[in-house]
Design a protein that fits this description.
By secondary structure, this protein is an alpha/beta fold. It is about 35% helix and about 25% strand. It contains 5 helices and 7 strands. A hairpin with a 4-residue loop joins strand 2 and strand 3.
Length: about 150
């Protein structure tokens, strides 16, 4: 019998169904109040993180989530969405960098309560880049919005 339990599956039969419903890593229960999550795929659509977000929203202060990070980054809005949930969760979130932690993945270590890294870890921060297109007035409004967001991050 497996000593780990998926937070989304109550029985062994539910495990296969749980994996088929998500494309990102599931939250794995490793003890009474201990959980494990692997952030090791490109950060994609928010829908891929429903299990993690649900866990963070329903966790209590006795829960601890160990997040193993080896990630090159990805979708900014998904990153911001999940990091907001980490910041608002009563659970203790420990980020453990194993290998690369780049771009959007660095936000996860900034949002975590505790951070550790192995000797081979590499963390890369960079300035934001991307196009702003559209009507001049609307583009200026979007640019001002982004300028107001980044000091908070």
């Amino acid at each position: 019998m497996n000593k780990y339990k998926l937070a989304c599956a109550d029985t062994e039969e539910d495990v296969e169904d749980c994996f088929s419903q998500m494309s990102a890593s599931p939250v794995i229960q490793t003890g009474d109040n201990s959980y494990l999550y692997f952030l090791d795929m490109e950060i994609g659509k928010s829908s891929q993180y429903r299990n993690l977000i649900s866990f963070l929203r329903t966790a209590d202060e006795d829960d601890t989530l160990d997040m193993i990070i080896c990630n090159d980054g990805g979708e900014l809005f998904t990153t911001l969405n999940v990091c907001e949930e980490i910041l608002n969760s009563p659970a203790t979130v420990r980020a453990s960098v194993r290998g690369r932690c780049c771009s959007g993945a660095t936000f996860f270590i900034l949002a975590a309560d505790q951070v550790e890294s192995d000797d081979c870890a590499s963390i890369m921060f960079h300035s934001a880049s991307g196009p702003v297109v559209g009507k001049f007035h609307e583009s200026n409004l979007e640019l001002e919005h982004w300028k107001s967001l980044f000091p908070k991050m």
